[in-house]
Design goal:
With 682 residues, the chain is of the alpha/beta class. The protein contains 24 helices and 20 strands. Helices cover 46% and strands 16% of the residues.
Length: 682
């Protein structure tokens, strides 16, 4: 990532029946627009790379914010108020996942295999860039300074892939390749020219021009590269100077160039070549920006925020700019002139705002956030909340209904009680009233925007109702604030598993397990993702871990709350009016998973036992019936015994009675016919 370790002088430094079906050949999306023409969002694919920690570089060559930058680009791309990319079409590689082999697999292999004429492809890289014998290289995680040509990703290879192998119509390359004095100025010039001139049909925006370093700053939303910060701001709507909701290539290039130059006092100048791309190329669509109004003034201004307390989160126009610490101002440049709504919040205190602050073109204005009034405890509301929690923790539908009544009264008594709103949301979610659940999750977050448990569980509810992309975006937001949030990682693992993004699900599961090894659920999603990637031997111990850690009886399961069981929101919404139903479903998933693994490994006795156990938790599971039938039939063929044919026939028939339309139904019917014909023989 184009960055320097020191600042400029001014010190700005997703089990089978629950798998989500993904149409990877879906056509472009047409969205009605405010203007005379509809907005067409091309089918889009992206590879995002961010390397902060290098395996073989010395400490002074390690970077601070490249991984954060990649995460920010990822969030902007999958946002419906941004890039509008499908989650499954954005592959994110950071740190040890961003090896040379991984870059070649994703850029040289995956992108050319999926992108077609009319599509949009974006490649983003944040990390080091180096030059060797006149050739430019991007540095993956396993880059070796002593073996540049064999451990770096060659720029000419990137150019060849983009130019001749990727058949997309719209091609975008964003490079924040940090020099930081690692190479000489004349080499920097050659590398930047290589980046800009990779391919004439490409919109290539690079972090800096010849003989310049690029900077990163801890003051930009908790730390970002200056270039990437403004790319994200621009794609989220700040670059839309025409006010039509579309961020074009020309608009982004102009916005990023202007803002980075101003922020660094001219020391860093992003570059692009207008002759090489369609200036109207759509990079992002921000519907909330689209309005039939005059274009805003082209000159931007800056607000500088300071706080009288640590841990104060500040919002500008409803978007967080980060968490402030006392005595450490944070600047928010690139704001359109005029009034902006600002608000400072800290849990346990009354907020400062919302209030209006004026931004003047070309000027910096300081805004002081003062958090002074402790939120007073409303005893009546707290008593109602405590009584509601007693019913909530008992589980079962009738208790949830009583809890909802009490939580509603508590919230009415104190409209600033975020905990009452939060438990109202969770209770309505348990009662299948997702509309009210969403309403109160939003209220809880509005009252206390730094209420990470509310944000995480809101992400879980979105997962529960099938809004998987938005769930991933919300959970990713939580993890940007708290990378060690085990609950968010667990639900993110389930979300990735549902999207068939199994490597990502495995990674998130393992992180959650490391943070909370006694939490059963991440072991389940890890096991399932390993099973889906044919790693049956590795999956079985993880299923066993889940089963051991969740080994309590059904009655107790109905009494436990979400935290004891783990993150139980985000299940698939079919069976939940008490937690014991969730416990049964999870046990069914685990035993079925073990059954299929054992069957694939031809350990048929174990497979039969596991599928039989799975059916004790869900007698209507068609896949368990089918897999159990196959195991019995295989055992009959191997042993030459006919004893197993009767149970095989029985389970094939039960599977067909439950769901005759599954893909496996055709094979089940053939086996039923074959077994029946065998029994009719003299």
């Amino acid at each position: 990532m184009a960055c320097a370790q020191t600042p400029p002088p001014q010190e700005k430094k997703e089990r089978d029946l629950r798998i989500e079906k993904i149409d990877k050949t879906a056509p472009p999306t047409t969205i009605p627009a405010v203007g005379p023409k509809p907005v067409v969002i091309p089918r889009s694919y992206a590879v995002i790379v961010g390397v902060s920690r290098y395996q073989k570089l010395p400490e002074d060559k390690q970077l601070l914010y490249a991984e954060r930058d990649a995460q920010a680009i990822y969030t902007a791309l999958i946002s419906p108020e941004g890039g509008n990319f499908k989650v499954e079409n954005v592959h994110l590689l950071t740190n040890d996942k961003a090896t040379l082999a991984a870059l070649k697999r994703e850029i040289d292999g995956w992108l050319p295999s999926v992108a077609k004429e009319g599509d949009r492809v974006l490649i983003y890289f944040a990390g080091h860039g180096f030059l060797s014998d006149g050739k430019g290289y991007l540095a993956p995680h396993d880059f070796d300074l002593n073996k540049v040509a064999t451990t770096g990703y060659p720029m000419d290879e990137l150019g060849s892939v983009i130019g001749s192998k990727i058949n997309a119509t719209y091609k975008i390359l964003l490079t924040d390749a940090c020099h930081s004095g690692a190479i000489a100025p004349d080499e920097v010039e050659s590398l930047n020219k290589t980046l800009v001139n990779l391919n004439k049909s490409l919109f290539s925006l690079t972090a800096s021009r010849a003989r310049e370093r690029s900077f990163e700053s801890p003051d930009l939303k908790g730390g970002h590269g200056v270039f990437t910060y403004y790319v994200v701001q621009g794609m989220e709507g700040a670059a839309d100077t025409s006010g039509d909701g579309v961020v074009s290539a020309d608009e982004l290039a102009e916005y990023v160039h202007t803002q980075v130059r101003e922020y660094t006092s001219g020391q860093q100048n992003p570059t692009s070549d207008k002759a090489n791309y369609d200036p109207e190329m759509l990079l992002a669509y921000v519907p909330s920006n689209a309005k039939p109004a005059e274009a805003p003034a082209p000159k931007f201004g800056t607000l500088i925020f300071e706080s009288n307390m640590d841990g104060v989160e500040v919002f500008v126009d409803g978007n967080t700019i980060g968490v402030l610490s006392k005595g450490k101002p944070v600047s928010v440049p690139g704001l359109a002139p005029g009034e902006h709504t600002v608000k400072g919040v800290k849990m346990g205190y009354e907020p400062d705002g919302p209030r209006q602050e004026m931004v003047y073109p070309g000027q910096e204005s300081t805004v002081s956030i003062k958090i002074t009034i402790a939120r007073r405890r409303n005893k009546a509301a707290e008593d109602l909340l405590d009584n509601g929690l007693r019913y909530y923790q008992k589980g079962y539908e009738q208790n949830y209904k009583k809890a909802a009544e009490l939580f509603q009264k508590a919230f009415a008594a104190d409209l600033a009680n975020s905990k009452a709103a939060y438990y109202l949301a969770r209770t309505y979610n348990a009662l299948f009233d997702e509309d009210k659940a969403q309403e109160y999750f939003k209220k809880a977050i509005e009252i206390d925007p730094d209420y990470l448990e509310a944000r995480a569980n809101y992400g879980g509810m979105l997962l529960d109702v099938g809004a998987t992309d938005e769930s991933i975006r919300q959970l990713n937001t939580v993890l940007q604030r708290d990378p060690d949030h085990a609950q968010a990682l667990t639900m993110l693992a389930q979300a990735y598993r549902s999207k068939e993004l199994f490597p990502q699900a495995i990674d998130a599961s393992r992180k959650a397990i490391k943070l909370s090894p006694k939490n059963a659920e991440p072991h389940l999603w890890l096991a399932d993702s390993l099973r889906f990637t044919s790693k049956y031997t590795d999956a079985i111990p993880e299923y066993d871990q889940y089963l051991q850690l969740s080994d309590f009886n059904s009655k107790l399961a109905g009494q436990l709350n979400y935290y004891v069981l783990g993150s139980l929101i985000g299940l698939g919404k079919k069976k939940r009016a008490a937690e014991q139903d969730i416990w049964k479903e999870f046990r069914n998933i685990a035993y079925f998973g073990k059954c299929e693994c054992e069957q694939k490994l031809t350990r048929l006795d174990a497979a039969i036992a596991d599928c039989q156990t799975a059916l004790t938790y869900d007698p209507k599971d068609p896949f368990a019936h089918f897999t159990l039938a196959v195991a019995f039939m295989t055992q009959a063929k191997k042993s030459g015994s006919v004893a197993e044919l009767s149970p095989a026939l029985n389970h094939f028939q039960q599977m067909l009675a439950i769901n005759p339309d599954l893909d496996q139904a055709s094979l089940a019917r053939k086996n039923v016919t074959a077994i029946q014909e065998f029994f009719r023989r003299p």
